[in-house]
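thought: fold this chain, then report.
action: predict
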Amino acid sequence: MNERAWLSVKEAVHYCGLSRATIDREIKRGNIKSKLYTTGNGKHGKKRRLISRASMDEWIESLPDAPSRLN
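observation:
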């Protein structure tokens, strides 16, 4: 299967099941890699963010395992 390397914010939320706020926080902390670009002409364009699928996967894998049973 050919998975894209970069996801929109909406796609990233759907892909990993985390909230946008969590993804934004981890981007700010440097745990998830993203790129920001502007569509259109300069100041009149809209800013868009792309999120690295690989860095998101790596960050999730680095989290501690949850206990097998929650108390």
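thought: worth noting. The two ends are 38 Å apart (CA to CA).
final: tokens above.
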